[in-house]
Amino acid sequence: MAELPLDDGALWYDTRGDGPPLVFVHGGWMNGRAWQPQVEHFADDYRTITLDVRGHGRTGATGLDRYSIDLFTDDLEALLDHLDLEEPILCGLSLGSMVVQRYLDRHPDRAAGAILGGAVRSMPPIDLPPGTKPFLSPLPGIAASASMMGSETTFRSMLCSIRATTGERWLSVDSGVRADAMEAVGEVSSGEFQKVFGALYRFEPPALDHVETPTLVVHGDQEAPLVKRQGREIATEVDDGDWLELSRSGHLVNQDRPQAFNDASTTFLGRLSPT
């Protein structure tokens, strides 16, 4: 366990194993522990790196009043530079998939590969008319809810709203995984919850047609249909992309079906050029 100093805080990260660098970026209001099944599987053959994004886990709050996916990507770049990692393999889940997408946009051929679980390009996962997002923003309502009811209750309300439109369990099909996710959300302060939501909502997805990095996109069959559609778009848009759906799993697909996710990732990693 170590920390990378930032101008307004410190970024917590952990490394295990030796070999090609395999870097994991977790989803919104989660933390690096969400990748534990993958770390345990790959640490014998790879140098695994997990981090807690600003506002999450052991990194916790930082001094800025506003977050963005670009800021989170800046932090990822700083960590890669700090660890002197070249040609990393980047694994992002949900919010983490946005961070990886932004990194690939900036560096279309620098990463050796990318694995995106529960990949999403926008919040909400629909195309809104240009210029309308600020006028439709749910941020005031999210801020009021988080301030009065806390992060976990606000998150549960969000999940219920999504499930009402999809009819699926969406987040996870496993009660233990859901409980762990809720515990992680409960560790996030209401102020940080609002800043993270703002980063997700304001994210404008980059075009990825110039990206040369081999990319695997994985979704669960219980994932929200609009999110799955966006994942297929990512796999189609990058130069070398594949899309995979795993049965009996939701948004947290790497935890719902860890062995299947690890097997698919191992097959994908076997295609990559030696680092």
TrEMBL record:
Single GO MF annotation: hydrolase activity
Official protein name in the record: Alpha/beta hydrolase
A cellular component term, taken from the record's GO annotations: membrane
SUPFAM superfamilies: alpha/beta-Hydrolases
Keyword Protease recorded: no
Pfam families: Abhydrolase_6
Superkingdom in the source lineage: Archaea
Gene3D superfamilies: alpha/beta hydrolase
The UniProt record lists the keyword Hydrolase: yes
InterPro entries cross-referenced by the UniProt entry: AB_hydrolase_1, AB_hydrolase_fold, AB_hydrolase_sf
Keywords: Hydrolase
Domain AB hydrolase-1: 22-264
